[in-house]
Amino acid sequence: MNSAIYLRVALDTPLASLFDYRFDPAILPPEQQVQPQPGQLVLVPFGRQQVAAMVMDVLQETDVPPDKIRSVLATRPQLAPLNAEWLALTQFAAAYYHRPVGEVMLPALPKNLKALKTVALDKALKKISKQPAQPVWQVSTAPVLNEEQAAVVDAVCQGNGFATHLLFGVTGSGKTEVYLQSAARLLAQEPDAQILILVPEINLTPQLENHLRTRFPGMPVATLHSGLSEGERTLHWLNAHLGHARILLGTRLAVLASLPKLRLIIIDEEHDVSYKQQEGLRYSARDLAIWRAHQRAIPVLLGSATPSLESWYAAQQGRYQLRTLTKRAVEDATLPLIRIVNLERERPSEGLSPRVITAITKRLEAGEQSLLFLNRRGYAPVLSCEACGWVSPCPRCSANLVLHKRDHRLRCHHCGLEQRIPHTCPDCGNIDLQPLGRGTQRLEEVLATLFPEARVFRIDADSTRLKGSAEAAFDKVHDGEVDILVGTQMVAKGHDFKRLTLVAALNPDAALFSQDYRASERLFAQLMQVAGRAGRAGGNLTPAEVLVQTRYPDHPLYHALMRHDYPGFAKDILLERQQAGFPPYVYQALLRAEAAELAQAVAFLKEASELLSHPQIMVHDPVPMTLTRLANRDRAQLLIESAARPALQAYLREWIPALRALRSRVKWSVEVDPVDI
Ligand code: ADP
Ligand code: ZN
Ligand code: ZN
């Protein structure tokens, strides 16, 4: 009689990811001889490597022939199993995004859990065991909620079971306060509950973390984002997994954390594209969070001043419950006045119109802050030769190299290539090469010349490359050490600057005519966000003002913006989308391909498009991607869509294996619900 036990495990491998191994206690040290359960980690041999694997099933028999089957090398009995809900969540994500389950599960776990040596894991577990199991925390004084806010907290906390609440609140309307008081109410009702709070950007975690620590002294709060060291990540992840952390605050990857007592999910700035992972498993953290809430029958709260059109549409259909905050929470903090500056009439010099310069001067005199928003980092987008028309191209991409003057470099923002700045034109030898256009660095330089007495400060991806430098930079603004802040979209989001009364958007027009049908939705959200940084504190500061420089002063987007009219804007755009047959009225998937030559990529896509036809599926023609060449590879894409999500999913289940069977040498990937097409 064969009494061997086999484990079916998931591995982080690209194709099939389930494999059977023998569990042979006799070859393991005594503490590892207990038979592992589904949800536990083990180490197995794979090829010549030893890799971590997730136990999915315990089997009495296997189809693998006895001379082929290999044995489990080690188990991790010290780590409590991931529960069935977590396994179901990751299995759902794998099925929905059409990836092997191991590729979803294993990368979601901290490295120290999967390492061959257990030193780091054991150290973290030991550290955690010294926390009190029943922590006590206080709730410090909080502002009294206004009626609108109170209604949202009531709805979120009194509801029974699954509900998606869409909190549509203008900037500064006190959404954060709603999150804090919902958390407080819930934890008062159920002290061992867990709450997951997602923010779109790592830069927004310190601010919210501070709010949480000040509001809830003694509360175990864990954080998960890409800025943690492996040791920290292990500790925070385990705290959530073991049910100690009451609140887990994190970026999109935190949606896959293990939270056995999860009772509420909050997603701040739910419209933000950062919730979409853009490589590997291309998941939407917002969508997975909603699925997770449904699975656990708990509420999920999505907050935004400019909801995604998907969410807005869902609210109109009654699938989500719309909760609205119509005014700013701080007494006498009114929404800023948004004004359009017509650049045809008010000629800018160095990118700044006279009205913007006057407005800055006024803030400087009053000791208040100005924010100049320019969504383009670097000194100038290109270096050019006026004699022959040469502009600095990236030799590897269909894009130009950006001038970074201070570092004496030309840089490609797409592939990362760097070059020294040429002294003469490579084509004609002209020595007079000029920067063309304007980036944040040049703007910073211009402002320093115009306002020599002012403290000008720039925040963008270049100025905050070092760990901790972004947080320090934002602190500087909060502490009033900055008069004029220059920044990209990094400064647009979420920050609660108290002395900021002027925002100027210098060059937003480019996005108006983009090929990407989502560009206007994004532009509106971005401008609304950045405008929302102004005038948040009220009091006797200069009335808050937002100046938008444009050559298209009559564009409907700017008019909706001036009226702070997100619902009006959303209505127009939804109508356009319906007429054009775009999401949220259809469901899409995108097949991307890259090859040394465009023709190869397109040929593969053409073949792919003819593999399978289905009456409910529309397969478009292959087209080159907007940025066709990236790092010496040409890229093309094929869009498929359907009015029915299940039909699209069923199609993908059949189509993707057929694509694999082509065994093409072209590199390809499929994205479900793409946001960038
Ligand atoms: P949002 O997240 O909607 O942009 P915040 O939650 O940051 O807005 O709130 C903006 C400001 O209003 C903060 O300074 C906050 O402390 C304050 N605030 C929020 N709710 C109230 C309230 N009910 N009473 C007084 N001040 C409030
Ligand atoms: Zn030239
Ligand atoms: Zn490049």
UniProtKB/TrEMBL annotation:
One of its GO terms (molecular function) is ATP binding. Keywords: ATP-binding, DNA replication, DNA-binding, Helicase, Hydrolase, Isomerase, Metal-binding, Nucleotide-binding, Primosome, Zinc. Zn(2+) 1 binds at residues 385, 388, 425, 428. InterPro entries: DEAD/DEAH_box_helicase_dom, Helicase_ATP-bd, Helicase_C-like, P-loop_NTPase, PriA, PriA_3primeBD, PriA_3primeBD_sf, PriA_C. Its EC number is 5.6.2.4. Zn(2+) 2 binds at residues 394, 397, 412, 415. GO terms for cellular component: primosome complex. It is an enzyme of class 5 (isomerase). GO terms for biological process: DNA recombination; DNA replication initiation; DNA replication, synthesis of primer; double-strand break repair. It catalyses: Couples ATP hydrolysis with the unwinding of duplex DNA by translocating in the 3'-5' direction; ATP + H2O = ADP + phosphate + H(+). Residues 156-325 form the Helicase ATP-binding domain. It holds the Pfam family PriA_3primeBD. Transmembrane segments: none annotated. Binds 2 zinc ions per subunit. Its cofactor is Zn(2+). Component of the replication restart primosome. NCBIfam families: priA, PRK05580.1-4. Belongs to the helicase family. PriA subfamily. Initiates the restart of stalled replication forks, which reloads the replicative helicase on sites other than the origin of replication. Recognizes and binds to abandoned replication forks and remodels them to uncover a helicase loading site. Promotes assembly of the primosome at these replication forks. This is Replication restart protein PriA. It comes from Undibacterium luofuense.
